[in-house]
Design goal:
Layout (H helix, E strand, L loop, with lengths): L1 E5 L6 H10 L3 E6 L2 H10 L2 E4 L5 H9 L3 E4 L9 H19 L5 E7 L25 H7 L6 E7 L1 E3 L6 H12 L2 E4 L5 E6 H14 L4 E4 L3 E5 H12 L3 E4 L1 H8 L3 H5 L7 H7 L9 H6 L3
Parallel strand pairs: 1-2, 1-4, 2-3, 4-5, 5-6, 6-10, 7-9, 8-12
Antiparallel strand pairs: 9-11
Helix pairs in contact: 1-7, 3-4, 6-8
Length: about 290
């Protein structure tokens, strides 16, 4: 098949592209710069110049493909509301080009932030839940009524030795302040998955995903933030400390909500229905300890 892939040079998208090419698919990658375009060509992909702001390029890419995988997202937290709105509009633009085609459209989303409860694939993801403005999943699911085979992949913290999701932000913060900190007993949990295991799930959903279904790319159901913070302390050789609830916001700033999150998630249904199993040996803590 010919697959239109947004975010094709990104952290997850580049691994997805490599898997698709290895499976003998053609990949049409969206490139917003000449540098990105050259990276895609060197990898063996075809190139479509454009970005999430260029809706015509998104429609054109969807029209030219047998399926669409959407992984691009601007993670600038200072403009999160605007970025989420841009993502919604981009999904609608690609969906309009796919309407009535019965083509597969795989959209990337976040996990339900149920705070203290283990979320599953059957849990809904209401818009604006717990202050989260991203509506990728909701925008995608609407398209199932217009003849598009939508599937959603919900992502936890994605890691390898180069990047470790939110843990990378905590590491930068610890490096700047000379201390690695958690809140209270640090037993709040983050789900996680290795980048290569996440990429493999996209291929499985492309081949066997069901219309209107949600899948969890979760390798570890819940890693205690204290374990993450202690690994950061060891990696940077800085002290590790516990903060009180009262001192947390002053220390972490915009990272405070992230440091406090307790959002474990299950992938039991995903593993059962798609026969997906994480294969990478390195877990989140190990990749922090061996980060480059």
């Amino acid at each position: 098949m010919r697959i239109f892939l947004t975010g094709a040079t990104g952290f997850i998208g580049s691994a997805i592209a490599a898997n698709l090419l290895n499976d003998k698919h053609q990949v049409l990658g969206l490139a917003r710069s000449d540098t990105s375009a050259e990276v895609l060509r060197q990898a063996g992909c075809d190139v479509l110049q454009g970005d999430l702001h260029d809706l015509e390029s998104l429609r054109r890419g969807a029209e030219q493909a047998d399926a669409v995988i959407h992984t691009a997202f601007d993670h600038d937290f200072s403009r999160m509301a605007d970025n989420c709105e841009m993502d919604r509009i981009a999904i609608e633009a690609m969906g309009s080009a796919l309407a009535g085609s019965n083509k597969r459209f795989i959209v990337t989303s976040g996990l339900p932030p149920l705070m203290g409860q283990v979320s599953t694939e059957t849990d809904s993801l209401p818009a604006g839940a717990h202050g989260m403005p991203r509506v990728s999943e909701q925008a995608a699911m609407v398209l199932t009524d217009s003849g598009v085979r939508v599937s959603v992949i919900r992502m936890p913290q994605v890691h390898d030795q180069n990047r470790q999701g939110f843990a990378s932000y905590l590491m930068d913060h610890a490096r700047k302040h000379g201390v690695s900190a958690y809140v209270g007993d640090g037993q709040n949990r983050w789900p996680a998955v290795h980048r290569l295991d996440a990429a493999r799930l996209y291929s499985l959903v492309l081949d066997n995903g069901a219309r209107g279904e949600r899948y969890h790319a979760v390798g570890e159901e819940g890693v205690a933030v204290r374990d993450v913070v202690e690994a950061i302390g060891k990696r940077l050789n800085v002290p590790v400390t516990s903060l009180s609830e009262e001192d947390s916001a002053g220390h972490f700033g915009w990272l405070d909500r992230i440091a406090r999150m307790d959002v474990p998630a299950s992938s039991a249904l995903t593993r059962q229905t798609l026969q997906w199993q994480p294969l990478q040996k390195a877990d989140l803590v190990q990749d922090i300890l061996e980060s480059v």
